[in-house]
Amino acid sequence: MYYDPIKKTLGQVFNRTPWLRRLFYHLLDLLLLRTWHVHRELRRWAKGRTQEPLNILDAGSGYGQYTYWMSGLSSKWDILAVDVKDDQVADSNHFFRQIGRRNVQFAVQDLVLYQEPNTFDLALSVDVMEHILEDVEVFRNIHASLKDGGMLLISTPSDQGGSDVHDDGETSFIEEHVRDGYNIREIQQKLSTAGFERIEARYSYGEPGQISWRLSMKYPILMLGKSRLFFVLLPFYYAVVFPFCLLLNWLDARSTHDSGTGLIVKAWK
Predict the structure, then answer these.
(1) pLDDT tens digit string along 94-120?
(2) Averaged pLDDT score across all residues of the chain
(3) pTM (2 d.p.)
């Protein structure tokens, strides 16, 4: 199914006021398991750096929730958030001006082409690379755009059931994906080819996370894909499943997984 129309509808609902958008961000932070893993890695990276004037690239910013979270950690960080969708970029710029976060700028850019040599201390790519066929080109551009010692943090589906694909005959749950998921050695090799010298990769979305994802994301999206009337039922649905999803997310983020449907990858220039 196509996920973008549902995302656009959700964005329109929560973009009506700054308060609703903040609420939307907080709900995403709690519900989306990848956010738990990404925030954990970002906290580790940020330790001892919040008073430093650093430059950060949010490569594929989407709704802007990760930029919002990072900009709240330090006003000394300058964050450039890029995306290919004009409407999301415009909405995000408007929202961040409304709340007075002047250290953030959103811009329309194609990651296959965008490069800003030796500029950024950190680059973040969350649920982006599964949408881009020319992934090595993107990795090369990000590598060139990082300063020496800079880090790229990636969250993306793995080939162990990412995109809800478990057999050769199955197709991705999300139609916009150009690949079902990365083999852990494949993405390490591609990053190495792009010039990264040190690479660490681990699985996310182990057993607890997979259950949480089905409850919090897959089933609601399938319902909304059938009819927008399910928007009315969503609050009641989440009232039941939300506590279980929180517990499952907490367990997954604090466990080491031999396999999982997601990958968390860190690579340094």
Answers:
(1) 999 999 999 999 999 999 999 999 999
(2) 89
(3) 0.89
> What is the distance between the alpha carbons of residues 57 and 40, in angstroms, rounded to a whole number?
18
What are the Cα distances from residue 223, in Å, to 56, 214, 233, 245, 250? 36, 12, 10, 18, 26
- Residue 174's pLDDT band, with cuts at 50, 70 and 90, is low
DSSP bridge pairs for 154: 125, 265
Asked whether 199 and 192 are in contact (CB, 8 A), the reply is yes
Tokens representing 10 are: 């959700």
- What is the C-alpha to C-alpha distance for residues 214 and 222, in angstroms, rounded to an integer? 10
Q: Quick one: which of 8, 67, 40 has its CA closest to 266?
A: 40
Residue 177: CB atoms within 10 Å: 20
Residue 117 contacts residue 37 (beta carbons within 8 Å): no
What is d(CA 58, CA 209) in angstroms, rounded to the nearest whole number? 24
- Alpha carbons 23 and 219: distance in angstroms, whole number: 22
CA nearest neighbour of 71 among 147, 122, 6: 122
Using H for helix, E for strand and C for coil, what is the string for the chain? CCCHHHHHHHHHHHCCCHHHHHHHHHHHHHHCHHHHHHHHHHHHHHCCCCCCCCEEEEECCCCCHHHHHHHCCCCCCEEEEEECCHHHHHHHHHHHHHCCCCCEEEEECCCCCCCCCCCEEEEEEECCHHHCCCHHHHHHHHHHHEEEEEEEEEEEEECCCHHHCCCCCCCCCCCCCCCCCECHHHHHHHHHHCCCCEEEEEEECCHHHHHHHHHHHHHHHHHHHHCCCHHHHHHHHHHHHHHHHHHHHHHHHCCCCCCCCEEEEEEEC
Torsion of CA 187, 82, 109, 6, to 10 degrees: 80
